[in-house]
Amino acid sequence: WEIGQLVYYAGCTVEIFNRNGQKLFSSVGYANPWDGSFSGKSLPVGTYYYIINPKNGHKVISGNVTILR
Q1: Vertex 68, ends 38 and 65: CA angle to 5°?
Q2: Mean pLDDT, range 10-20, rounded to an integer
Q3: Residue 5, SS3?
Q4: Contact indicator for 16, 47 with CB cutoff of 8 Å
Q5: What's the whole-number mean pLDDT along residues 39-66?
């Protein structure tokens, strides 16, 4: 999941969760985009939730991303 312009926010955090609230991905910076996997295995088709904190005074961004295969 490539997020344009996020590379310019070096200290940002990105977290991805499943519908049960389990954290599937987290990073500080976004040098390695999320590839739709967890523990090396592709996740099933579904909706996942993200929280992006740019850490630069801008507000936290949250929403959902859907995996389609």
Answers
A1: 65
A2: 94
A3: coil
A4: no
A5: 95
What are the distances in angstroms from CA 20 to CA 7, 17, 32?
29, 8, 24
Q: Other C-beta atoms within 10 Å of 40: how many?
A: 5
- Region 47-56: what's the mean pLDDT? 94
Q: How far apart are alpha carbons 28 and 15 in whole angstroms?
A: 9
Distances (CA, A) of 12 to 1, 37, 38, 66, 67: 16, 21, 21, 22, 23
pLDDT tens-digit map of 19-32: 999 999 999 988 88
Phi-psi region for residue 35, left (φ > 0), alpha (ψ -120 to 50) or beta? alpha
Residue 56's pLDDT is: 84
